[in-house]
């Protein structure tokens, strides 16, 4: 029985290899949008009910305006590159939460949250666009689905049941948490850093496509570095690249991002 399950998993992985658009990175994903998006939307709705949405109309409007501009750039790229079905599956939404935490995130399917604590580090509209581009890129590249696939891969015996079941049992909730790195071990951290680096690059392209200054992505991480004051853990123990690594990578990628943004903005669906 174990051999059959293992063989099934191997076959699933073999037929589920695809390429991330723009970066060209090979990925393995056995989790479909039909499986993960309903859960993602429900989780997001539940989060909004349990947390305080900001009453700052000016900042909320700015955030949502930036979000819509960048999501339109992503949508344009997808429709011009044969990804119409995927483009139609997104349900873009952008909310500002009253919380001092310096953070933002995006669930599969385009559900974005910014915490008010990150706005001073963003500093300006282009800074918001840098963070927004990065978070939207996670959804575009299906990092959530890929992380879920990795979680399934570590639990071979339960993969058939997990894929077939929609029940919100403890194991399913635990697998969902792995999308966001909750409870990750050191062995999974490099995988997450790959996603973060890819989201940095894609985010720079998308913010440039939307008309924002991609240089601000570099400035953002300089401010992040200043904000942390050296208190972050060593890079090999972090789910994110170090600030200095990100700054170096973004500086190197800037000319490519600008060129790609110009290229993709001329494409027609």
Q: What is the CATH T-level topology?
A: Collagenase (Catalytic Domain)
Radius of gyration: 19 Å
The separation of the N and C termini measures: 48 Å
* Beta-strand residue percentage: 5-15%
Q: How does the overall form come out from the CA principal axes?
A: globular
Q: Calculate the mean pLDDT score and round it.
A: 81
- Please tell me the CATH architecture by its name: 3-Layer(aba) Sandwich
Description:
By secondary structure, this protein is mainly α. It is 63% helix and 7% strand. β4 (104-107) and β5 form a beta hairpin. It is built from 12 helices and 5 strands. It has one domain: Collagenase (Catalytic Domain) (3-Layer(aba) Sandwich). α3 (57-80) packs across α6 (125-140), α10 (186-209) packs across α12 (243-265) and α11 packs antiparallel against α12. It has a 3-stranded mixed β-sheet, with helices on both faces. Residues 73-252 form the Peptidase M48 domain.
Set out the fold topology.
Layout: H1 2-15, E1 17-19, E2 26-28, H2 33-50, H3 57-80, H4 84-89, E3 93-97, E4 104-107, E5 111-115, H5 119-122, H6 125-140, H7 143-153, H8 159-164, H9 170-178, H10 186-209, H11 215-228, H12 243-265
Parallel strand pairs: 3-5
Antiparallel strand pairs: 1-2, 4-5
């Amino acid at each position: 029985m174990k051999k059959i399950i293992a063989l099934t998993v191997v076959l699933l992985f073999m037929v589920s290899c695809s390429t991330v658009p723009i970066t060209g990175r090979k990925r393995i994903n056995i989790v479909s949008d039909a499986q993960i998006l309903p859960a993602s939307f429900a989780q997001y709705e539940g989060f909004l009910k349990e947390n305080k949405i900001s009453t700052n109309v000016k900042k909320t409007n700015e955030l949502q305006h930036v979000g819509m501009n960048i999501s339109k750039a992503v949508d344009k790229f997808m429709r011009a590159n044969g990804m119409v079905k995927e483009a139609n599956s997104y349900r873009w939404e952008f909310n500002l939460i009253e919380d001092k935490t310096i953070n933002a995130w995006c669930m599969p399917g385009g559900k974005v949250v910014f915490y008010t604590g990150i706005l001073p580090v963003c500093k300006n509209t282009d800074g918001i666009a840098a963070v927004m581009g990065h978070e939207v890129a996670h959804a575009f590249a299906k990092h959530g689905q890929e992380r879920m696939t990795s979680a399934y891969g570590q639990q071979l015996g339960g993969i058939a049941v997990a894929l077939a079941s929609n029940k919100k049992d403890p194991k399913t909730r635990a697998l969902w948490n792995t999308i966001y790195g909750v409870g990750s071990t050191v062995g999974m951290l490099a995988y997450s850093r790959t996603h973060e680096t890819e989201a940095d690059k894609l985010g720079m392209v998308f913010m440039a496509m939307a008309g924002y200054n991609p240089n601000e992505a570099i400035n953002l991480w300089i401010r992040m570095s200043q904000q942390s004051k050296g208190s972050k853990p060593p890079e090999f123990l972090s789910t994110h690249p170090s600030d200095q690594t990100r700054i170096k990578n973004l500086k190197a990628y800037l000319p490519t991002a600008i060129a790609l943004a110009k290229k993709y903005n001329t494409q027609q669906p």
